[in-house]
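User: Please run a holo structure prediction.
Assistant: Happy to. Please share the sequence and the ligand.
User: Here you go; the ligand is zinc ion.
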Amino acid sequence: MIKKHSIFANWRKKDVDFLANLGITIEEGYFSFLIEEGSVYNEIIKHYTENKGFFVNRTPKEFSSKFAVVEFSMEELDNSKYFVLQNIGKPKGYPFPKNNFDKMTEETYTNYCKKCESNRQQKAPFKIEKEPKLSKNQVNFSFHTIFDEMFFNIDFFQEVLKPLGLKSKEVLIGNTGVPSKNVVQLIIPEAESSLLLDNSVYDINTSCEICDTKKYTQQILGFMPSFKTDFDFLICKTKEFFGETETRQAMRRIIISKEFCDILVKHKIIHYNTNEIYPITNK
Ligand SMILES: [Zn+2]
């Protein structure tokens, strides 16, 4: 696992020279670059944050360093039994009614906190403005603003997913009450166990002051912790919600087994790389 940081400043000539000595090419003025954690990164941070003399200001204006991204190696992916699924399909617009997120939420979900959106349970089928037409090789899609549901071409679902024991839910066309003939929602069951998230790198938010739910961060900060207890599944949704404390965004993470991952890769629904999946810690 490689952690990369983004370093930004209004760089001066002397900073360009200092960084060039470390093998980093930047331009004078506002510029940012990505750097892996390690000795060079440590040297830069030390240089710009320590030993500030009274007469010499080493730190350029607006200097900042923030954690940017984690990348996993192929070996780390290969060794993992379960993955967090990041690529849930290309979004096909917004769920209906598309200009009214509150109304859509009210019609589709129950039990959610009005402030932080946690704990929602789906109570009704999703609606889509008009019968969706997928392109020739496209078998699935997602909706903008819905980060924990997947929708599939109905024939693909019948042929590939149903035989695996997976279930589907109809998608309705606008306010007609008529189910789509082309697509269905995949029912992603809730995980039978919670994840060992408390005190992990994902445990950085405070609880909601209304409902007391703690959302875990959506940032990818490292391996996702494992489940407390093992259970068999192809695909499931975490019991926990992810999002940041002060936002209304709340999603469950979708977890897939290696077996299901192979099926998604085989049908070109995802690519096997760390932009689209990331590993769960093995127990
Ligand atoms: Zn809440």
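The first strand starts at residue 2 and ends at 11.
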